[in-house]
């Protein structure tokens, strides 16, 4: 029998199981839905966390019926599911799967959607509770949001109505504000769920557990002990089939504006008075408001594009040769930025953020690098191999935490070298971590908001990034790095100037 801690009779926590509801998916033919969202819905069902009264409605410009759609969804679920496959679970889920064909501006299709939802309520018992999941390009948002409104689908008289919004939340502060206003005209703030899937990751939530459940770390979590913080999100993949999206966006907008600034906020924030949405958001916002950009952006940021090189032992093309990319494109596939936080806790402690496609390997980590001990009572030659102490939170892969410190090399002399002390999720817990989207979709269905950034956080993040992007956009050239390396020379120089160096993850 599969173990499910939520069902363990010794576990007094109430199981977090969603009540009757349906999800209407816009953008269901896209990559995200196929690879992540549909498999996550299956995994939730398989873990017993979806109710029998559950519906999944696809709305798209395809000539499909319910049957074809269900078959395609089954293929996607089977290909991407984390948990074992069960025909029984799928068949139960498939009873609530419906498809509405049509253009997003076609009122007949919307009437059809309204009828379909009503039928699901009556036949499948979805209770009038509907989540509208927008996994679509932002240009389509105005149409979809206003049609939801016009057709009365946001009306909460007969059940709850929620909207789930995938990034990008705009492309700068102004467009983010417009988008937030557009959504805010139709949905109440507590019914809007903005997805930053990094917040759904166990290891990201563990930053809070590590900091606030222990006595060990918090006393040294400040400028007295910390030299600097490095946040790295490296990917070995290129841009795949997302040329259209990526070339208009670039690395900074794609992941620094959201994932990396959220990580920074969790690492830097004060202890919240509670872990509810209001408590968390307040502390994250305070950090984001205190972020300061360096005056000289040329010296303290780096951006670059990958050129041909290697990935997984195979030669790969450069960014400008990728299918669908303008050969003269100046879009960055690598970005690094130094940020400072103007608070007593963090004064003088730089936070270095870097991300890139086609780097040496896939790794996301947060490294808190400590100052050297103020005095070393050893001979100089005994400590030449001693670096800074560091606490590294490994977000993915090899999820865990490493503490790096000096230890005596066995032998007759007092030679000291760095060693690692390791916590690995796989070694300490038998349960596999759920995928981020399982957690986030379940939270949407339960109406549980702490892991979803509110519009203030989104706008504050753009406020930080806008001047950097504007500065970069004035340049007529861009640095390069070979695929499979750790980024451009300018990124290394950026830290060398501060007397520091990037960790080799
Ligand atoms: C997405 C970005 O938000 O995160 C992608 O748009 C990126 O470009 C992806 O590849 C990475 O997610 P993960 O969970 O694999 O780190």
Q: In the CATH classification, which architecture of the largest domain applies?
A: 2-Layer Sandwich
Number of domains: 2
CA-based shape = globular
CATH class of the largest domain: Alpha Beta
What is the CATH topology classification name of the largest domain?
Dihydrodipicolinate Reductase, domain 2
Described by its quaternary structure, the protein is: single chain
Helix count from the secondary structure assignment: 15
Poorly predicted spans: 1-10
Bound molecules: 6-O-phosphono-beta-D-glucopyranose
How far apart are the termini? Answer: 38 Å
Instruction: Kindly provide the radius of gyration, computed on alpha-carbon positions and rounded to a whole number of angstroms.
Output: 24 Å
Taken as a percent bin, the fraction of beta residues is 15-25%
Helix-residue proportion:
25-40%
Description:
- With 505 residues, the chain is α/β, with parallel strands linked by helices.
- It folds into 2 domains: 191 residues, 3-Layer(aba) Sandwich (Rossmann fold), CATH 3.40.50.720; 215 residues, Dihydrodipicolinate Reductase, domain 2 (2-Layer Sandwich), CATH 3.30.360.10.
- It contains 15 helices and 18 strands.
- Strands 7, 8, 9, 12, 13, 14, 15, 16, 17 and 18 form a 10-stranded mixed β-sheet that branches.
- A hairpin with a 3-residue loop joins strand 15 and strand 16.
- Helix 1 packs across helix 13 and helix 9 crosses helix 14.
- The chain is globular, with a radius of gyration of 24 Å.
- The chain starts with 20 loop residues before the first strand and ends in a 9-residue tail after the last helix.
- The N terminus is likely disordered.
């Amino acid at each position: 029998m599969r173990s499910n801690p939520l069902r363990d009779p010794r576990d007094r926590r109430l199981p977090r199981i969603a009540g009757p509801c349906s999800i209407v998916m816009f953008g269901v033919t896209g990559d995200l839905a196929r690879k992540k969202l549909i498999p996550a819905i299956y995994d939730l069902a398989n873990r017993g966390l979806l109710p029998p009264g559950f519906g999944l409605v696809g709305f798209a410009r395809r000539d499909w019926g319910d049957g074809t759609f269900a078959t395609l969804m089954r293929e996607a679920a089977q290909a991407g599911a984390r948990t074992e496959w069960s025909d029984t679970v799928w068949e139960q889920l498939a009873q609530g799967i419906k498809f509405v064909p049509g253009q997003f501006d076609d009122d007949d299709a919307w009437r059809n959607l309204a009828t379909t939802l009503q039928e699901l309520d009556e036949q499948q018992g979805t209770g009038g509770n509907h989540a509208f999941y927008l996994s679509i390009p932002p240009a389509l948002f105005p149409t979809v949001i206003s049609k939801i409104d016009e057709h009365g689908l946001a009306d909460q008289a007969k059940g709850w109505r929620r909207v789930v919004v995938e990034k990008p939340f705009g492309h700068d502060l102004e467009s983010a504000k417009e988008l937030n206003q557009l959504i805010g005209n139709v949905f109440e703030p507590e019914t809007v769920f903005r997805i930053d899937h990094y917040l759904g990751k166990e290891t990201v939530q563990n930053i809070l557990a590590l900091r606030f459940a222990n006595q060990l770390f918090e006393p040294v979590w400040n400028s007295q002990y910390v030299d600097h913080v490095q946040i790295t999100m490296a990917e070995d993949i290129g841009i795949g089939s997302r040329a259209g999206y990526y070339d208009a966006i670039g690395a900074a907008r794609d992941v620094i504006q959201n994932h990396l600034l959220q990580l920074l906020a969790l690492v830097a924030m004060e202890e919240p008075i509670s872990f509810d949405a209001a408590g968390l958001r307040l502390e994250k916002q305070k950090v984001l408001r205190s972020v300061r950009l360096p005056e000289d952006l040329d010296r303290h940021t780096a951006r670059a594009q990958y050129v041909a090189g290697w990935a997984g032992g195979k030669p790969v093309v450069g960014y400008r040769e990728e299918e669908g990319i303008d050969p003269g494109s100046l879009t960055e596939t690598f970005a690094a930025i130094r940020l400072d936080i103007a608070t007593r806790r963090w004064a003088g402690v730089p936070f270095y953020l870097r991300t890139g496609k086609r780097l040496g390997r896939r790794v996301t980590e947060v490294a808190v690098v400590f100052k050297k001990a103020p005095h070393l009572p050893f001979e100089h030659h005994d400590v030449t191999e001693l670096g800074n102490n560091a606490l590294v939170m490994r977000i993915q892969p090899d999820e865990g935490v490493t503490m790096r410190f000096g230890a005596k090399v066995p032998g007759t002399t007092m030679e000291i070298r760095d060693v690692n002390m390791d916590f690995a999720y796989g070694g300490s817990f038998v349960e596999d971590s759920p995928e981020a989207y399982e957690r986030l979709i379940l939270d949407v269905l339960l109406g549980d908001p702490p892991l979803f950034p509110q519009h203030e956080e989104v706008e504050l993040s753009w406020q930080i990034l806008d001047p950097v992007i504007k500065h970069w956009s004035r340049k007529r050239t861009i640095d390069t790095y070979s695929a499979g390396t750790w980024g451009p020379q300018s990124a290394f120089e950026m830290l060398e100037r501060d007397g520091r160096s990037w960790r080799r993850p």
